[in-house]
Specification:
Strands 1-2 form a two-stranded antiparallel ribbon. The chain has helices at about 5-10, 15-25, 40-55, 65-90, 95-110; strands at about 30-35, 40. The N and C termini lie far apart (about 45 Å). By secondary structure, the protein is mainly alpha-helical. The chain has five helices and two strands.
């Protein structure tokens, strides 16, 4: 579901229109641009909630927030890539899967 700015503000108590627009200007939230205003998808809304939590509940300041968001983006990206790799391994014949698992265990033991 796609939402307008006012719908996001109505849905999330912790955010105001002014605050949301500031976060977009800062690049912390990256909605698509609709014909008249930004349009927020589910991921954008989840990110707004995350920024609210980081700022309001964890008291991250404006200098630390971009660093935290960047690290979280990297973590989620690695998680996505790891899931894709796991799916690719599972598509292989059983003997190849076992060789990959054995090599992975050896590397982890280091």
């Amino acid at each position: 579901m796609r939402r307008s700015e006012t719908q996001v503000v109505a849905e999330i108590e912790e955010i105001t229109l002014r605050r949301l627009r500031l976060w977009v200007r800062n690049g912390w939230i990256l909605p698509d641009q609709g014909p008249e205003e930004p349009v927020y998808d589910e991921l954008d809304v989840a990110r707004v909630r995350l920024v609210c939590e980081l700022k309001d509940k964890m008291n991250l300041n404006d200098d630390a927030l971009p660093v935290a968001l960047s690290l979280l983006d990297q973590l989620y990206g690695m998680r996505r890539d790891f899931k894709a790799l796991a799916r690719a391994v599972e598509e292989q014949p059983p003997e190849v899967r076992e060789e990959v698992r054995a090599a992975w265990r050896r590397l982890l033991e280091g």
